[in-house]
């Protein structure tokens, strides 16, 4: 019965030393030029190192004491009863589509998540995992992270604190439950935490992770500042800028805003060529490092995602008027933000919102929205050069903020809660069970249609770059491809990307090859990828173009996609060349490594494949595909016992992995246990009735029963 083995293997992979500048003194120049966005900050240098929050608190204890209570200060920590906000009396949830139950509980000081499946009253699957980290301040959510030898993955339970409710995490719903395998990469971690020590050449491996966002995320590396203070250098910061450390209050409005936008402008982020999520530092221009896109829709002004505060605020008339005023754009101000609306107009980043008196927000509104002539003149003045004729500022009665300059709602006065009406709480479209204030400040909007009716009239306009006016065609094309792959697999994103990418000449191909390959790979147009490769040649691609290791693994991914094109057209030897190149560029990319292993089997190099799988399992003993593939080779080599151990170890981690169920059926067929082979084939077909390999194998088994 060895011939049945051809049906039971699926080859597809799951896919500082301190350096100092000269010390600055009080004689630092203070010309107008230096209040613009410049790169004169000493801690922008690569020699400036991060010193950590415990060093900062030695001089700034009061700020430290309040900051650690903020959402940023509490953003990430090891899993502990102190960190957790969860209610563990009602901690069982069900994924009805995936047919899994989950329960969170404490076992002494360890937080556990139990995954199980029931058949009637019988438990037919059980997997128990330990939570290593909790991500989220607890103001809105606590999500849970597992570390396996430094490889971080999100776990399938989130506690939504506003509703005191456990549920699947965002993105795990509606049949998309990735259970314990959603990778937490550098992009995620670099916003939800301070900068981690990410392992180059991996997707989600970290040498270490800090415990919460700290001071240096907004002020930049502190080593030079600490060194200057340690040597007695003092600067009168009431008159001068201390260039050893960034004080966001003294940045230009745009530069200050960019610090907040780095993470509070969540969306489809496209890095500039050669840049990483480590590179932007406070005081720099964000668009030099990344461009953030969001899809825009007609008839959907009230929809927003959780971390879209910057985008929403930028649409507000208050913001537009204030930031275009002559005072706000003056270059001789020590603190430019004082004459404009920025995030810190309302938010003190050193103090928790929970501990902020609500009157603080009202007072921010009342600075402009005062009664009488004084207020009228203030509003007109802050409209600045754009004036009252700017269409974005005008309302139906042709005034800036409406016919009345104060709120004319009955019973509303200066002490009323402005935010409740003009920044109403609403659910974000990407995070369930959460309400946040919409930062699009405007007159209250009546709800005139249902959600279903809104969906019917909502019209996609395009992807918009929120922090850059005119991104290049290449950047825009990349954004459309990312939107398709990461967020919404809709064909019009691919069509838009194709329109932006030229491929007529060899020079076009050289400039756009990575995105062209990504586009055709997404469409499974493997023959076109091979045509591109033949035009540019293997020598050019492997030795000139695709040679750079990076935190985003872009060149590795391009090699992988080329390898898949050759693999899917039967050219395994050529595929192996590109898969091995992807692994050279990303040696800790376990799915790349797994693909190399399966291709080695295809070309008859089983012993080399065994070494590959052993390397994977040394890094991650829970890698289901590697366990499955290793078991297959062991069966081919006649070691059914070793095969069975690895197959059922994998089954404990994933009871629904189709190649595994197929291979287990093959194992039983090999042992002439056709009854159990039949059981596992039916189990697979119950989950996926369209699996053709299982259908064919079942016919064979049925003929032998």
**Span from first to last CA?**
13 Å
Strand elements, count = 17
Query: What radius of gyration results from the CA coordinates?
Result: 29 Å
What is the count of DSSP helices, taking H or I runs of 4+ residues? 26
Helix content: 25-40%
Arithmetic mean pLDDT: 87
The low-pLDDT segments are 1-38, 372-406
* Biggest sheet character: 6 strands, antiparallel
How would you describe what is shown here?
By secondary structure, the chain is of the alpha+beta class. It has 26 helices and 17 strands. Strand 6 and strand 7 (141-148) form a beta hairpin. Helix 22 packs antiparallel against helix 23 (640-653). The longest helix is centred in the C-terminal third of the chain and has 17 residues, at 506-522. The radius of gyration is 29 Å and the shape is globular.
Offer a concise description of the structure.
The strands form five sheets. Strands 1, 6, 7, 8, 9 and 10 form a six-stranded antiparallel sheet that branches. This protein has a four-stranded antiparallel sheet with strand order 2-3-4-5, with no helix packed on it. A three-stranded antiparallel sheet has the order 13-14-17.
Give short descriptive properties of this protein:
six-stranded antiparallel β-sheet, four-stranded antiparallel β-sheet, 38% helix, globular, 26 helices, alpha+beta, 13% strand, 705 residues
């Amino acid at each position: 019965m060895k011939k049945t083995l051809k049906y039971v293997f699926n080859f597809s992979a799951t896919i500082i030393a301190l350096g100092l500048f000269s010390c600055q003194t009080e004689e630092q120049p203070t010309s107008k030029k230096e209040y613009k966005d410049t790169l004169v900050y000493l801690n922008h240098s690569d020699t400036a190192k991060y010193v950590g929050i415990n060093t900062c608190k030695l001089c700034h204890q009061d700020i430290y004491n309040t900051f650690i209570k903020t959402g940023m200060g509490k953003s990430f920590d090891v899993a502990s009863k102190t960190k957790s906000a969860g209610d563990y009396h009602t901690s069982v949830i069900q994924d009805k589509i995936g047919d899994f139950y989950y329960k969170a509980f404490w076992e002494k000081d360890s937080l556990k998540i139990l995954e199980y499946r029931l058949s009637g009253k019988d438990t037919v699957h059980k997997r128990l995992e330990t939570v290593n980290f909790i991500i989220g301040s607890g103001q809105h959510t606590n999500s849970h992270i597992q570390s396996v030898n430094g490889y971080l993955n999100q776990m399938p339970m989130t506690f939504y604190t506003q509703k005191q409710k456990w549920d699947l995490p965002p993105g795990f719903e509606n049949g998309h439950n990735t259970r314990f395998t959603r990778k937490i990469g550098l992009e995620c971690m670099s916003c939800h935490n301070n900068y981690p020590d990410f392992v180059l050449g991996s997707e989600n491996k970290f040498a270490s992770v800090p415990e919460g966002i700290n001071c240096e995320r907004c002020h930049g590396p502190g080593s030079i500042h600490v060194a200057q203070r340690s040597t007695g250098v003092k600067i009168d910061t009431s008159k001068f800028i201390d260039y050893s450390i960034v004080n966001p209050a003294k940045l230009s409005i745009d530069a200050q805003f960019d610090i907040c936008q780095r993470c509070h402008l969540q969306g489809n982020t496209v890095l500039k060529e050669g840049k990483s999520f480590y590179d932007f530092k406070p005081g720099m221009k964000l668009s030099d490092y990344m461009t953030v896109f969001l899809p825009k829709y007609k008839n959907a002004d009230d929809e927003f995602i959780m971390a879209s505060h910057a985008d929403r605020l930028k649409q507000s008339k208050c913001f537009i008027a204030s930031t275009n005023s002559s005072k706000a754009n003056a270059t001789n101000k020590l603190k430019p933000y004082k004459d404009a609306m920025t995030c810190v107009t309302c938010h003190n980043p050193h103090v928790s919102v929970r501990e902020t008196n609500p009157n603080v927000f009202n007072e921010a509104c009342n600075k402009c929205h005062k009664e009488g002539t004084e207020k009228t003149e203030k509003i007109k003045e802050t409209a600045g050069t754009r004036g009252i004729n700017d269409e974005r500022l005008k309302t139906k009665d042709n005034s800036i903020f409406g016919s009345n300059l104060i709120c004319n709602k009955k019973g509303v006065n200066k002490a009323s809660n402005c935010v409740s009406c003009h920044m109403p709480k609403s659910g974000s479209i990407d995070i369930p069970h959460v309400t946040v204030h919409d930062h699009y400040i405007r007159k209250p909007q009546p709800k005139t249609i249902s959600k279903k009716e809104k969906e019917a009239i909502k019209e996609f306009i395009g992807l918009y770059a929120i922090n850059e006016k005119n991104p290049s065609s290449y950047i825009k094309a990349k954004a459309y491809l990312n939107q398709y792959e990461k967020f919404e697999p809709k064909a019009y994103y691919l069509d838009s990307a194709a329109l932006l990418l030229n491929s007529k000449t060899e020079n076009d191909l050289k400039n756009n090859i990575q995105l062209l390959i990504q586009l055709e790979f997404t469409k499974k147009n493997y023959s076109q990828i091979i045509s591109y490769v033949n035009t540019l040649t293997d020598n050019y691609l492997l030795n000139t173009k695709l040679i750079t290791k990076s935190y985003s693994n872009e060149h590795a991914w391009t090699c992988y996609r080329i390898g898949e094109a050759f693999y899917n057209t039967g050219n395994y030897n050529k595929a192996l060349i590109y898969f091995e190149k992807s692994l050279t560029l990303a040696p800790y990319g376990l799915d790349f490594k797994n693909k190399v292993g399966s291709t080695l089997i295809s070309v008859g190099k089983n012993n080399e494949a065994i070494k590959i799988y052993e390397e994977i399992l040394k890094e991650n003993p829970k890698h289901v595909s590697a366990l499955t593939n290793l078991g297959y080779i062991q069966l081919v080599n006649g070691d059914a016992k070793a095969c069975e151990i690895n197959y059922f170890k994998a089954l404990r981690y994933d009871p629904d992995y189709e190649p595994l169920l197929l291979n287990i059926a093959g194992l039983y067929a090999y042992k002439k246990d056709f009854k159990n082979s039949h059981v596992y084939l039916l189990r697979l077909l119950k989950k996926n009735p369209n699996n053709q390999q299982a259908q064919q194998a079942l016919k064979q088994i049925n003929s032998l029963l």
